[in-house]
Amino acid sequence: MTIHLESQSDLEEAVRTLVKRDPRLKSVLEIAGMPALRRREPGFAGLAHIVCGQQLSTASAAAIWGRLSAAFDPFDHEAVRRARTDRLGRLGLSAAKIKTLKHLAREIIAERLNLDVLAEEDADAAHHTLVSLPGIGPWTADLYLLFCLGHGDAWPAGDLAVQEGLRMGLGLKARPTEKQMAPLAEPWRPLRGAAAHLWWSYYRAVKKREGVLAGN
């Protein structure tokens, strides 16, 4: 059964369960405080929002998304399908991101892709579906599952802040690689998404800065 983090109370219950299951997380929670649930819009718009933020500062990503949202009402897969490539480029999207969004739009229209059903799939299977799409890497896939679908077991193994949080919080000698993150998170299944929220909060508390592009 897939667990969803739909509300703040869902997240808090999941975090308390994790702490009971793994005593190492007690001190992490004491430093981090209870994390706040972060959610974004689901569907094409939510994934497009994350794609727009790939490899950009929060401010730059927010500016581009603001221009896209203002230019298209609604900003959905049909709008992107119809939009001229040069117009999307003038709004700030790179050629690679335009290609990614155009491909996503075609897949949705052809009913080869349903982003919403991924919420009910196993986290690893849903992750695989997304990363098989051109231009969708692991970071984008995991943030979509976690923030847009509220998938309780999504695990952003490639996120540097989560990696650094684990290094500090678990007393590791070095920051774990993306490959090493998978076995480290095994004890937290099927609540790895809640664990990710906790580690982001821990990173923020220790480093005094945000570790994930979630609010733009």
From TrEMBL:
Catalytic activity: Hydrolysis of alkylated DNA, releasing 3-methyladenine, 3-methylguanine, 7-methylguanine and 7-methyladenine
Assigned EC number: 3.2.2.21
Enzyme class label: hydrolase
Keywords: DNA damage, DNA repair, Glycosidase, Hydrolase
Gene3D superfamilies: 1.10.1670.40, Hypothetical protein, domain 2
Highest taxon listed in the record's lineage: Bacteria
Keyword Manganese part of the UniProt annotation: no
GO terms under cellular component: cytoplasm; protein-DNA complex
MF (Gene Ontology): alkylated DNA binding; DNA-3-methyladenine glycosylase activity; DNA-7-methylguanine glycosylase activity
Span of domain HhH-GPD: 52-203
InterPro entries: Alkylbase_DNA_Glycosylase/TA, DNA_glycosylase, HhH-GPD_domain
GO BP: base-excision repair, AP site formation; DNA alkylation repair
Coiled coil stretches, renumbered: none
Name the record gives this protein: DNA-3-methyladenine glycosylase II
Organism from which the protein derives: Bradyrhizobium manausense
